[in-house]
Automatic annotation (TrEMBL):
GO terms for molecular function: 3'(2'),5'-bisphosphate nucleotidase activity; nucleic acid binding. Its EC number is 3.1.13.3, 3.1.3.7. It holds the Pfam family DHH. Residues 20-162 form the DDH domain. This is Phosphoesterase RecJ-like protein. It comes from Prosthecobacter dejongeii. It is an enzyme of class 3 (hydrolase). Residues 240-325 form the DHHA1 domain. InterPro entries: DDH_dom, DHH_sf, DHHA1_dom, Oligoribo/pAp-PDE_c-di-AMP_PDE.
Length: 329
């Protein structure tokens, strides 16, 4: 596969003649994944194209309020033909999921658009820009470059993508263009206040139960510079957790004044442990620590999968992380 950085104008040119397009993002989709897929899908549909929006794990309940999410397809997929396929916000091809990867393979052209620096460029066309705070921002620029429709529904998805992946425009990756794009959307009539309320002020009671458990059980080491929590299957069953319930909870750990890095260890159904790590110090690269365990991502936000049991995985990871933390001044 080519690893040449393809311009957004060239990608727009590749999409323009295509009539049947499949768009996918990573498993366990977050706001940037879903928002980018649907933002692009709705724009292309407005041009009269047939677009298949694919998400292996479906729509998280916390994002189901967004326009036309009911059109998102999940496995098993029907046997449809595709001219062009796109993988968005997905650092490795496998992260779209087994069934979705097979569906994308039906297309003679695969386009990879991402902002994870570890992305190797697995598409025939690749636009991987690790300086961008969200893939939603890249998709907005793609639509602008191609002169593609940007409707209110498109803006709702792309604003959600950008807002959620920038921590409501707080993270250091947020740049001047991010705010310009948000301003352009507001000037075009987007109701950002409504979106903010639905995204950040409308939670099910079970999320607060999880938050209570995390605050009771959180653990500190390295003189309070590392905060972590072990999220067990027992608690998931007790609270009856739904996809999207834990989105952003790690930020509560990270906001503690002494904390430099926060980690959540999540016990998955297959026995693996999902590691989510965050840093608020540019000198501490959590993607490098996650890389020791086969993971990766961004310098300040990364993840990995480890073998259980959860206590052993946590101790192994935190030992490696503490080694890096203690190297800081």
């Amino acid at each position: 596969m080519s690893t040449i950085q393809t311009s957004l104008s060239e990608i727009a040119d590749a999409l323009r003649p295509a009539q049947r397009i499949a768009i996918a993002a990573h498993v366990r989709p977050d706001g940037d994944a879903l928002g980018s897929v649907m933002g692009l899908a709705l724009s292309l549909r407005a041009m009269g194209k047939t677009v298949y929006a694919l998400l292996e794990d479906g729509v998280p309940l916390n994002l189901a309020f967004l326009p036309e999410t009911v059109t998102i397809l999940t496995p098993p997929y029907a046997d449809f033909e595709v001219d062009v396929a796109l993988a968005l916000d997905t650092a490795t091809h496998e992260r779209v999921g087994e069934h979705t990867k097979a569906a994308l393979a039906r297309a003679p052209l695969l386009i990879d658009i991402d902002h994870h620096p570890t992305n190797p460029g697995y598409g025939h066309l690749n636009h991987v820009d690790g300086t961008q705070p969200a893939v939603g921002q890249i998709i907005y620029e793609l639509l602008k470059a191609g002169g593609f429709p940007i409707t209110d529904a498109v803006m709702q998805h792309l604003y959600t993508a950008i807002s959620t992946d920038t921590g409501s425009f707080q993270y250091s990756s947020t740049n001047a263009r991010t705010h310009h794009i948000a301003g352009e959307m507001l000037a075009a009539g987007l109701d950002s206040s409504r979106l903010a309320q639905l995204l950040y002020q409308t939670y099910p009671a079970r999320r607060l139960q999880l938050l209570r458990a995390m605050l009771n059980e959180m653990d500190f080491r390295a003189e309070g510079r590392i905060a972590s929590w072990q999220f067990t299957r027992a608690l998931m069953d007790e609270v009856q957790v739904q996809p999207g319930d834990t989105e952003g909870m790690i930020d509560t750990l990270r906001m503690i004044d002494s904390v430099v890095t926060a980690v959540i260890f999540e016990e998955m159904a297959d026995g693996k442990i999902r590691v989510s790590a965050r840093s608020k110090d540019q000198r501490l690269d959590v993607s490098a620590v996650c890389g020791q365990f086969g993971g990766g991502g961004h310098r300040l936000a990364s993840g990995a999968r480890m073998k259980g049991p959860i206590q052993e995985a946590a101790e192994t990871f935190l030992t490696a992380l503490e080694h890096e933390v203690r190297r800081l001044a």
